[in-house]
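Working notes for the structural subgroup meeting. M.R. asked for a predicted model of this chain before we commit to crystallization trials. I am recording the input and output together here so anyone reviewing the notebook later can reproduce the run.

Input as submitted:
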Amino acid sequence: MLLTSALSACLWLATAARAAIATDEDGQVKAIGLRTHTLQQPYLDSDMQSRWFDFGGDTVIRTDQYIRLVSDRPSQTGWIWSRVPLTATNWEIEVEFKIHGKNQLFGDGFAMWLTKDRAKTGPVFGSADNFEGLGIFFDTYKNNRPGVVFPFVMAMVGDGKTSYDKDTDGKNTEFAGCSARGIRNPSVPTKARLTYFQDKSLKLELQYKAEGEWTLCFETEQPPAIPQVAYLGFSAETGELSDNHDIISVTAKNLYMASQPSRPTTPGSGRSKKAASTKKSGGSWTWFFTKIFLGAFAIGGAYVGWTAYRAQQNRRSHRF
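Returned structure, recorded in token form:
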């Protein structure tokens, strides 16, 4: 029983090791969580402050449910901003949000920011205009954008000098975007996932159709130049029309490419040293037993020959 248990344990450990190796070899991109840019319930410390984020304006924090940037009331502005910049070269930010209200007419929307400056109130979804960096706008009210279905999600790359034109819903400064009608009053948790690889790609995915189902909003192989020192922020505003704009959670990760395992380049060279060693060891044992068998056979043959010789000598001695 003890031997069986030991063998079972060894087999289990071997299986687990193989599974870990397979996971490492299959995964191309690895991720490390960024605590400095992550927001989870209860959001605040014991002294009712956040260690990593500042908040202001009309923002209300309910520690067991949400961070409400603005409530369903006219003329509100609210924001939250990271206290430290996001300096990772490659990163992924996933935010769960909720835009909801009871009115048939509603507005205006909220924004996600990765900009050089932080915590400045202004007319662009509650934050400052002429920003430098990246803004992702979740626009729920259509001003003048023919042929586009709202709500509309749009990315804008700011150079610090160009203004966002609210009257045309940012048409002339749009970097990329998509319609996302289901992000307001959703039946499933609504999420946005922004993935950035420096000089390689920028991708935005949305979850609003079904839980666990991600819809590609846009992806580009020529990403914009985001400032090396950029702060993460969220802001929202309401005008004459309003909605509740809630941030439920924010998860940030630093991404890096996993090292590739070496591959054999010639036929037959893929056998590992361990396999070769095992084969060599097996061959050694086989040769060892072969030598014992041959030795025994030779001794037995010599004994039989010697016995026959003695018998012949005895017959000769009796004959004379």
